[in-house]
From TrEMBL:
Keywords: Allosteric enzyme, Glycosyltransferase, GTP-binding, Nucleotide-binding, Transferase. Residues 8-207 form the Phosphoribosyltransferase domain. GO terms for molecular function: GTP binding; uracil phosphoribosyltransferase activity. This is Uracil phosphoribosyltransferase. The keyword Nucleotide-binding applies.
Length: 207
């Protein structure tokens, strides 16, 4: 699993453990998720190239290094990915965002894509946010859809994954770098991550 990068950051681990507390309500759950997404972005972009841009400073014009913001498109899987998307868009304020809605059949655990709304991805660095990589089915479907649009590169930001799902993603998408906060023990028979956090969408939106 050479393309799966699990965070070693104590701060990220601390925030993930906070998410596991079942008494944490939606507002604070979303806040921690936003913060984890931002910290994962920091890890994912450590090697990213900078471009020099001229700006006016208080002592006159000067060239300074910036990320090429126009190169990034942020995408997410509804609805659990929304707070992560929000966290990333707080940093890349002008980045276009794209949405995929994927539902998991709770019996067969198969993923069904029922809505796709993507900006132009051609030649772009696409960041996909999806908090839970359980069977890996939804992320696999999402990555297949994104790849059809010919992006330059795809980076996946995820919070908790099961070894089973991450193995699938690593085998099917060795070209996608996955930055994940925590790899948990296993999946249960219903496809939930153990110990995990339960249903991330329900937790985030108080349902
Ligand atoms: N989706 C979730 O939100 N949680 C899991 O544990 C698995 C899939």
């Amino acid at each position: 699993m050479n393309n799966i990068f699990e965070s070693k950051s104590p701060l990220i681990k601390h925030l993930v453990s906070n998410l596991r507390d079942k008494n944490l309500k939606g507002y604070n759950f979303r806040k921690y998720v936003r913060e984890i997404a931002q910290l994962l972005l920091f890890e994912a972009l450590k090697e990213e190239k900078l471009i020099n841009k001229e700006i006016e400073t208080w002592i006159g014009k000067g060239n300074f290094p910036f990320l090429d913001e126009e190169n990034f498109v942020i995408t997410t899987i509804l609805r659990a990915g929304l707070p992560m998307l929000d966290g990333i868009l707080e940093i890349f304020q002008n980045a276009p965002a794209g949405f995929l809605a994927i539902k998991r059949d709770e019996k067969t655990l198969e993923s069904h894509v029922y809505y796709i709304r993507l900006p132009d991805l051609k030649g772009k660095t696409v960041i996909i946010t999806d908090p839970m990589v359980a069977t890996g089915g939804s992320l696999d479907s999402a990555l297949n859809i994104l790849k059809k649009e010919n992006p330059k590169k795809i980076i996946s930001l995820n919070i908790i994954g099961a070894p089973e799902g991450l193995k699938l993603i690593s085998e099917k998408h060795p070209d996608v770098n996955v930055y994940i906060a925590q790899i948990d023990k296993k999946l249960n028979n219903n496809g939930y991550i153990i110990p995990g956090i339960g249903d991330a969408g329900d937790r985030a939106f108080n349902t």
